[in-house]
Specification:
Chain A: Pfam families: Cytochrom_C_asm (PF01578). The complex is a heterodimer. Chain A is an all-alpha fold. Chain A is built from seven helices and no strands. The chains are: A mainly alpha, B mainly alpha.
C-alpha cells in the first residue's frame, strides 16, 4: 500500500471542497447570489482538465522520443481523464449558466472553446480506435495529440481574451472574482479543490493504466 | 540539401501540370459549390446579409481545402513515398508539400472569391486587407491540412477521418479568419484589427513549426 498518502489527501481535499463549498460563507452579490459556490466545482474541474491534458501531451512527447508503449498508455489515460473532467466542467457550467445567464448555452466564447477542445479529444480517441497496429497507433495518435494541442493553445487562452463579449466573470466588463473576494475566503476552498480534482484524475489514470496492463498481459 | 527542397517543389508542380484534370477538378468543385449556394439562397429575391456572405464564403473555402488537400498523402502510393524518403529528408518533403498546397490553395481561394463576388455581390470595402486575409488563410488551412492528411493517411478509413481530425483543429483558425475578414469587409480602420492579422501569422508559424518537428516521426511508420 505504498504511495497511499496522496489518495487519502485527494479524498480529504475533495470532501473539504464539497463541504466547504456548500457550507462556508460566501460574498453576497447580485445575480450570482449563492451560485458563486459553483466556483468551487466548475472552475477547479477546468483547471484539473488542463493539467491532465497537458500531462497527456507530455507523455505523448515522451513516447515519441522513447518508443515505450507504457508512455503511450499513460498519454491516452490522461486524455481520457481530462475528457471526463471536461464533460463534467461543461455540464456544471451549463447548469450554472442556466440560472445566471438565463440559458444553459449562450454561445459564450469560452463555452465554444471548451466544446471545440472536447471535439479535438474525441477525434483523438476515434483516431486511436481506427488504427490496429499497437506501435503505429501509439505513434500516429501521439503526433495528433501534440499537433492538436499546439493548435489549441491559441484557442483556449488567447481567443476568449481577444473578444470582449464573454459573459464569464472577469471578462467583458464583468468584474472577476478577485474583485468580490477581498478576504480570500473563496480561495481557501478554491485551491484545495483544484488539487483535489487533479489528484482524482491522476488516481483514475493509475487505476485505468493498471487495468490495461492486466488486459494486455491476459491477451498475450 | 537545399536543392532537394526546390527539386521537390518543382516535382509537385510538374506532377500537377501533367495531370491538369485534378486542378481543373478542384476549380470546378469550388465553382459548382458556389453556384449551389447561390441558387439555394435565391439571391435575386432576398438580400444576403454581410455576416452570412462572409461565413458562407469561408465555409466554402474550408470544404474546398479539405477536399483538395486530403489527397496530398492519401493518394500517393506507398512505393513512391518510400522512394521520396530514400532521396530527401522528411523535413524537406513536408515543407515542399506545404509550400505547394499553400500556393494551390491561394490560387483556388482567389478564383473562388472572384466567382463568389460575381454571383453573390461584392461587399468588401478594404480589398488589400481582404486579400491579405485570404492569403494567410490559404496558407494556414493548407499547412494544417497537409500534416493532418499525413496523419489520416495512415489509418484505413482515411477520407472520413480527415474531416473528423481537421474540423476541431481548423476551427480556431477559421474563427480568427472570419473575424479578420469581416473587419476588412466593413473597411474599419486597419490598426483596429492588426491583432487578428498578427494572430493569424502566429498560428501559421505554429502550425508550420509543429509540422516540421513532428513529420519525421510520422513518416517513420
Amino acid at each position: 500500500m505504498k504511495k497511499k498518502w496522496w489518495k487519502i489527501l485527494c479524498v480529504a481535499l475533495l470532501s473539504y471542497a464539497l463541504l466547504g463549498g456548500l457550507l462556508f460563507e460566501v460574498p453576497r452579490l447580485g445575480i450570482l447570489n449563492e451560485t458563486i459556490r459553483n466556483l468551487h466545482f466548475h472552475v477547479p474541474m477546468w483547471f484539473g482538465m488542463i493539467i491532465l491534458l497537458t500531462t497527456s501531451v507530455v507523455y505523448s512527447i515522451k513516447y515519441l522520443s522513447s518508443n515505450d508503449l507504457a508512455k503511450d498508455r499513460m498519454a491516452v489515460e490522461f486524455a481520457n481523464a481530462g475528457v471526463l473532467l471536461g464533460i463534467l466542467g461543461i455540464l456544471t457550467g451549463a447548469f450554472w449558466a442556466n440560472y445566471t445567464w438565463g440559458e444553459p448555452w449562450s454561445g459564450d466564447p469560452k463555452q465554444n472553446s471548451a466544446a471545440i477542445c472536447l471535439l479535438i479529444y474525441f477525434a483523438y480517441l476515434i483516431l486511436r480506435n481506427s488504427l490496429e497496429d499497437q506501435q503505429q497507433r501509439a505513434r500516429i495518435s501521439s503526433i495528433y495529440n501534440i499537433f492538436a494541442f499546439a493548435a489549441m493553445i491559441p484557442l483556449l487562452f488567447i481567443l476568449p481574451r481577444m473578444t470582449d463579449s464573454s459573459l464569464h466573470p472577469g471578462n467583458g466588463g464583468n468584474p472577476g472574482f478577485n474583485a468580490y473576494d477581498m478576504d480570500s475566503r473563496l480561495r481557501l476552498v478554491f485551491y484545495p479543490a483544484v488539487i483535489g480534482w487533479t489528484l482524482l484524475g491522476v488516481w483514475l489514470v493509475s487505476q485505468r493504466v493498471r487495468m490495461r496492463k492486466i488486459q494486455t498481459a491476459l491477451e498475450d | 540539401m537545399k536543392s532537394s527542397f526546390f527539386t521537390l517543389i518543382s516535382k509537385e508542380f510538374l506532377a500537377e501540370w501533367r495531370q491538369r484534370y485534378a486542378l481543373n477538378g478542384m476549380l470546378l468543385y469550388i465553382i459548382s459549390t458556389i453556384f449551389v449556394c447561390y441558387l439555394s439562397f435565391n439571391i435575386k429575391n432576398t438580400d444576403l446579409q454581410l455576416v452570412t456572405w462572409n461565413a458562407l464564403f469561408w465555409i466554402i473555402i474550408l470544404f474546398t481545402s479539405i477536399n483538395s488537400i486530403a489527397k496530398s498523402f492519401i493518394q500517393e502510393n506507398e512505393g513512391r513515398l518510400l522512394y521520396y524518403y530514400s532521396l530527401a529528408s522528411p523535413q524537406h518533403i513536408i515543407l515542399s508539400k506545404i509550400v505547394y498546397y499553400g500556393t494551390i490553395m491561394t490560387i483556388l481561394s482567389f478564383a473562388g472569391y472572384f466567382f463568389y463576388s460575381f454571383v453573390m455581390g461584392n461587399p468588401i470595402q478594404d480589398l488589400t486587407m481582404f486579400a491579405l486575409v485570404v492569403l494567410l488563410a490559404s496558407f494556414g488551412l493548407s499547412s494544417a491540412l497537409t500534416m493532418l492528411s499525413g496523419i489520416a493517411s495512415k489509418a484505413p478509413n482515411s477520407t472520413s477521418l480527415i474531416a473528423i481530425l481537421s474540423f476541431p483543429v481548423l476551427l480556431p483558425l477559421l474563427l480568427v479568419i472570419i473575424k479578420a475578414s469581416k473587419n476588412a469587409m466593413d473597411g474599419i480602420n486597419r490598426s483596429l484589427y492588426m491583432d487578428d492579422i498578427l494572430l493569424l501569422v502566429a498560428i501559421n508559424a505554429i502550425i508550420v513549426a509543429v509540422s516540421y518537428m513532428l513529420f519525421p516521426y510520422l513518416w517513420r511508420s
